[in-house]
Amino acid sequence: MGHPDYQVVLGDLSAMASRFTKEAVAYHALHQEVKPTVAASGDPGLDSMIEAMAELIAGLHDKLGDRIADHGDTLKYAHDSYQRHDVDVHGVFEDLT
């Protein structure tokens, strides 16, 4: 009776890990669209501020992409631990936190 539940959990964890990993790659690929080349405004001070803000946004974008990838890694770790029987269902939830 426990066997079908086991497979559902493994399938779900595997699907989520794959999806997070795939979406992290896609999100990172958007980097250039998030930080386009800044056009000159004619005011060096303003140009500097715009460039600084663009760098900040790009940095936040990269960090968010890294966090998405981290979630994929965590899900894969939880899947692999559960598959090897290193942990039970409660252990999977602990791995995910």
Instruction: Give the rounded overall mean pLDDT.
Output: 85
Strand segment count: 0
Radius of gyration: 20 Å
Helix fraction by DSSP (H/I, runs of at least 4): over 70%
First-last Cα distance? 27 Å
Stretches with pLDDT under 50, minimum 5 residues: none
Global structural class: mainly alpha
Described by the principal axes of the CA atoms, the overall outline is rod-shaped
What order do the helices and strands follow?
HHHH
Estimate what percentage of residues fall within beta strands: under 5%
Tally of DSSP helical segments: 4
Summarize the main sheet: none
Care to describe what's here?
There is one protein chain. The chain is mainly α and 97 residues long. The chain is built from 4 helices and no strands. Helix 1 runs antiparallel to helix 3 (44-83) and helix 3 packs antiparallel against helix 4 (89-96). The protein is rod-shaped, with a radius of gyration of 20 Å. The mean pLDDT is 85.
Task: Give a topology summary.
Layout: H1 2-29, H2 31-34, H3 44-83, H4 89-96
Helix pairs in contact: 1-3, 3-4
